């Protein structure tokens, strides 16, 4: 009961912080995810035993460059391509079934593009994609939360078949399907309140978020298993580290941004 209370209180503070930042202004939202990004990179640095602190400087430089200076769409697409390429290569590592020793340069690039760019694209969704409203980013968060919550509840209730036992023994196929169904339903309900994309597009976006978010969660689990730790950190009582809380969102963000960009061109 005490653990549930701690998790609930932490969750309330986390959600309140996000809501305040989203509806206050873009600078507040940008700053919040700059801080979250630094926290995630710090925890990831410990997981991969990255010795140098250059990655923090590189992330801040990339952050300020893309958030405040770059206005042309071509550099954004270049960063998106690098980020998606990094994530796809990491999926190869996830499904390889082998333990890989990364070089110092590989660790640096993974931290910068997998985590750093993920946080950058999260901030680009509500304020820098033309024609989209603030409720859109709230919908992204809600879909991820619904998926995580119902995957846990359904998996705990009726889950029998393991999804990826070598990486995350508690996750089940039934739980993943349950999370997907409820997340798609959440996408449909959100579409009733947001006209920036159609109902069909909300359903597609929900599926993209769930699939990429689940892969991001499994990827972080593999990094933690390789490091021999249960959580990436302990800053959030009952939830572990910041990266434990944001792993799905960080990995899913560039895929969501790419999906919304496609919607903007075809609509």
Describe this protein with a few key phrases.
mainly alpha, 267 residues, 3% strand, 78% helix, globular, two-stranded antiparallel sheet, single chain
Describe the protein:
The chain is mainly alpha-helical and 267 residues long. The chain contains 9 helices and 2 strands; from the N terminus they run ααααααββααα. It has helices spanning 2-24, 26-48, 54-69, 73-96, 104-127, 134-158, 173-191, 199-227, 242-266; strands spanning 162-164, 168-172. A two-stranded antiparallel sheet has the order 1-2. A hairpin with a 3-residue loop joins strand 1 (162-164) and strand 2. The longest helix is centred in the C-terminal third of the chain and has 29 residues, at 199-227.
Reconstruct the topology from this structure.
Layout: H1 2-24, H2 26-48, H3 54-69, H4 73-96, H5 104-127, H6 134-158, E1 162-164, E2 168-172, H7 173-191, H8 199-227, H9 242-266
Antiparallel strand pairs: 1-2
Low-confidence stretches: none
Gross morphology is globular
β-strand percent reads under 5%
Widest sheet: strand ordering: 1-2
The value of Rg in angstroms is: 18 Å
What's this, in brief?
This protein is an all-alpha fold. It contains nine helices and two strands.
